[in-house]
Amino acid sequence: MINETRIKEHFLDLVQIDSEAGNEAAIAEVLKRQLAELGASVAQDQAGPSINSNSGNIIATLPGTMPGAAPLLLCAHMDTVVPGNGITPVIEGPIIHSDGTTILGSDDKSGIAIIFEAIRAAREQRVPIGDLEIVFTICEEKGLQGARAMDTAALRSKFGLVFDSDEPGVLFTKAPAANHLEWRITGRAAHAGVAPERGLSAIKVASEAIAQMRLGRIDFETTANIGIIRGGAATNIIPAEVVVHGECRSRDAGKLAAQTQHMLQCFQDAAARHAVALDDLTVTATIDPTIIEAYGAMNVADDAPIVQLVLAAGRELGSPVPIKAMGGGCDANIFNGRGISVANLGTGMRDIHTTKEWLDVRDMVKTTRIVVEMLRLHAAGA
Ligand SMILES: [Zn+2]
User: Fold this and answer.
1) What Cα–Cα distance (Å) separates residue 109 from each residue in 60, 73, 234, 295?
2) 349: CA distance to ligand 1 center in Å?
3) Residue ranges of the chain with pLDDT lower than 50?
């Protein structure tokens, strides 16, 4: 039996601890204590300062009751997006939402609550389980920085799960790689009324480039977006500089590279069309691009042990677990890039990253049930 009241209470406690990305210290203290109470040996790494967090990632090891079972990784992230301070959960039976002024924080405190409840329920049911490595990361919402900064070589697990997506009881095995992109476009400033012919508008160059760009959903596994434009100083000054920020994502590395190149080419082509002739020189627009490889793809094969375990758990429970691809990155992208086979099991978080975020406690229970059964099958196969 999963204890619905207990997981609900734990979840409610967790969401009321402020933990916007970079400010995970308070929740980390609570979780370290709760992990220690479970009997885990708990460590915290030094990743914080390098990524502007007041905490480190938590890495806990919980000895199992089935020696010989391969250790298994269970992971969720401690940080939330904004506005995530002073969350007041509103409870309507099994449905929990925020009071509308903040997010709820089910992303990803539902994942944390599920991990704890699975362990507690397995113990109460005397389900033998193998050793667990429990990781609670920081700064997931800032481009997976916490997991990226973590020394994953210290982990013994070769496979595991993160709990960080919406649909309960759905296993996400594929997620795109992403590039963060920035272009600095430089033109030439001039007085817009007195000497417009001596100016070169960086805004015009940027506009032309973006108008030519393929954006949005490029194909079934590739997306691209321009998200931020900053530039200009006054309406009477031809703008000398614009900075444009965008991203692209694809589950295919070749398509990611091609889309990234396409976006750069649009800027370069637009810049090449713009020049201004001054007394004895010609000024052309220039593009200074920055490409940051945010994370690699998650691509866990259908026959990978972790996928087979979760599917078997679903079959045992009589509710088959669907496999899906997701459009965003999560800590699993980082783990897979480090050779640890990690898929993402949905928790029931809904309308995340909005003040309308909500969660049905029964969805957390459903996912927890799958986890307990998976742990049982894993240990039984050892
Ligand atoms: Zn998340």
Assistant:
1) 17, 17, 45, 23
2) 9
3) none
Topology (CATH) of 4-175+297-380: Aminopeptidase (3.40.630)
Boundaries of every domain in the chain: 4-175+297-380, 177-294
Determine the pLDDT at residue 332: 97
- Closest Cα partner for 301 from 334, 270, 325, 317? 325
Could you read off the pLDDT of 84-132 as tens digits, one per residue?
Answer: 999 999 999 999 999 999 999 999 999 999 999 999 999 999 999 999 9
- Rounded to two decimals, what is the model's pTM? 0.86
Domain 177-294 CATH (choose: 3.30.2290.10, 3.30.70.360, 3.40.50.300, 3.30.390.10):
3.30.70.360
User: Residue 159 in contact with residue 75, Cβ under 8 Å?
Assistant: no
Active site amino acids: 79, 140
The answer to whether domain 4-175+297-380 and domain 177-294 are alike in fold is: no
End-to-end CA distance of the chain: 24
Rounded to 5°, angle at Cα 40 from 362 and 349: 25
Q: What pLDDT, on a 0 to 100 scale, did the predictor assign at position 265?
A: 98
Q: What is the 139 CA–ligand 1 centroid distance (Å)?
A: 10
Residue 52 Cα, ligand 1 centroid: separation in angstroms?
A: 19
47 CA distance to ligand 1 middle (Å): 19
